Amino acid sequence: MSGIAMPKPSQELLRNKAQIVKDLQRIISGEGVICEEIELRPYETDALTAYRQIPLAVVLPETVEQVSQILKYCYANEVKVVPRGAGTSLSGGALPLADSVLMSMMKFNQILDIDLPNRAVVVQPGVTNLGITHAVQHEGFYYAPDPSSQIACSIGGNIAENSGGVHSLKYGLTTNNVLGLEMVLMSGEVIRLGGKHLDAEGYDFLALLAGSEGLLGVVTEVTVRVLQKPETARAALIGFPSSEQAGQCVADIIGAGIIPGGMELMDKLAIDAAEDFVHAGYPLDVEALMIVELDGPEAEVDRLLQEVSSLATQNNSTYLRVSETEDERNTFWAGRKAAFPAVGRISPDYLCMDGTIPRKALPQVLKRMQVLGEKHGLRCANVFHAGDGNLHPLILYDANNPGELEAAEAFGADILRLCVEVGGVLTGEHGVGIEKRDLMPEMFSETDLKQQQRVKCAFDEKHLLNPGKVFPVLHRCAELGRMHVHKGQLPFPNIPRF
Hints:
Helices cover 35% and strands 19% of the residues. The chain is an alpha+beta fold. The strands form five sheets. A seven-stranded antiparallel sheet has the order 15-12-14-13-18-20-16, with helices on both faces. Strands 5-6-10-8-9 form a five-stranded antiparallel sheet. Strands 1-2-4-3 form a four-stranded mixed sheet, with helices on one face. Its cofactor is FAD.
């Protein structure tokens, strides 16, 4: 698994596998427990396929009661549990451990309630992202967050990673579109947070759980917000002689107070790959291609398209085409959404990175990424959510060539360090997982990381849920519970203590 270390497996748990499997089979009968190596193979990795590990066993619960009993059993016997949705995580978030039970939630795949007067849909976590839109689109509604893997990724996994998508610039990430959750804690306790109402009382635990990467609990039910389809939506394809000019145009559009429904950017390598794969009609004589979608009332869309066109001209654009039909708009997006598999056709392997930067830094970062590519001797295709500065560099390599995976990892680490250096963050929507775990100190101090781990301890004091992810060094909860005394002085000495 290259240079990424995972927690050493418990030899006692490995020796007790047969008993653990037998105990789990008492909770889930039939084919609900998988324990043979050949049957475990499909679960050894997620979409970060460079890293693999066969789990101790896989369980496929179908009811909340089964989830609760499994977690209660694992809590009592200190067995690690890795929650898994559709396995589309690009950060290794669902990578199992040798001594862990992997809990697949894909049998929780029902839409439970469609309540359009309240603009809410209640689903189980195994329902796909696109499945929600399909369930309500006949009534003119849709679910806004739309990651490129939306045809396959599950809503439970979207919550774990706080997934976004091409339309998240205007309509928000998963955290902005989830209204309520049912969740099972590691102890087996079932809790409910929020609901169909707009705001939940008390602490905002929903925001805490969106992006918690399976470290705090297992989601068993989700209430999401759905939106009415805009009156008009049109997309523009805009080509530029350089990525730097395209990046500056992105900053200028946002600076002008225009918030597109979506604004994406692809460089030459990604354009060529996507066009060859989808035949979306992309121009092949440009170095960067921007897709800008405006939605709302028709008059507003027409005016904003004129403003965007003017800003593009000021940044030396050489190509402009505006969709005239809904089919044409969808075709523009089809190329972008297929960019990841398209790049997979031109390289045996690639790492899909995920960092976020201030929009104004786009031209600078794109230029420095070219220098980093030369330093590491690898090509990089850029596809990203330009409007919110969420980069998705695709680092191309061949794992069959000795040293190339390590070079790709080093290249990716340098890109993420660059993101932090210019005032950005390590992840926008893919999560930390194992991919960025050891880079967390680039962004957070030791004090910051300990404070985050205190939250983990409040939910899972034995560190049994998804261990080995997010935190580069894991502290015991008892150690984190101590109050720090500096030079004999308690922090905030004037605050009354009881």
